[in-house]
Amino acid sequence: MQFQFKIIPAESIDSVVPLAKKMSKPSITEALLLKRFKEMVSQNYECIGVYDADKLVGVSGLWFCTRHYSGRSVELDHVFIDDAYRNKGLGSQFVNWIQEYVKSKGCEAIELNAYIDNEPSQKFYERDGFQKLGYHFVKEI
C-alpha cells in the first residue's frame, strides 16, 4: 500500500474528529472534540494525516514551542493509527515522516506523552529512540 502523509488544513480539521473520538474518553463528545480542534488550529498547532488513497487512517497533532532544556521542539499529540492499519510498519513510517518534516522547520527535539497503561505504545517509541524522562501529570479543574 502507498500511503500519503500531509498537513490537514485548518478548514478541514473536522475530518480528524472520528479518529480522535476512538482514542478519547467516552465522556468527550464529537461536538466537544470539534470545538477543541477548531481552537487548537488557531494556536501553535498543526495536524498531520495519514491517507490510504482518500481515506484518513492516521493522525498526529504537532505543538511547536521552544523549551529551555531541548530548544526548538515539537510535541506529538494524539498519535493514532486506525486498528486495521496497525502492525504493518505504518507507525514507523509516520514518525519518520514527521521527524523529517519538523527538522525542516528547525526543530531540535520531538517530545510526546504515552499513557502509563499503553505499554505497546511505550515500547514502540523506545524502539524508535525516544527516552523516558518523567511523568506527565494532569489535574482537571
Characterise the protein shown here.
It is a single chain. With 141 residues, the protein is of the alpha+beta class. It has one domain (3-127): 3-Layer(aba) Sandwich (Aminopeptidase). The chain has four helices and five strands. A five-stranded mixed beta sheet has the order 1-2-3-4-5, covered by helices on one side. Strand 2 and strand 3 form a beta hairpin. The longest helix has 15 residues, at 90-104. The termini are far apart.
Strand coverage percent: 25-35%
Radius of gyration: 15 Å
Q: Write down the overall geometry.
A: globular
Q: What is the structural class? A: alpha+beta
Considering DSSP H and I runs of 4 or more, what fraction of the residues is helical?
25-40%
Read across the widest sheet, the strand sequence of neighbours is: 1-2-3-4-5
As residue ranges, the low-confidence spans are none
**SSE sequence, one letter per element:** EHHEEEHEH
Topology, number of strands: 5
Question: What is the CATH architecture term?
Answer: 3-Layer(aba) Sandwich
CATH-assigned fold name: Aminopeptidase
Average per-residue pLDDT, rounded, comes to 94
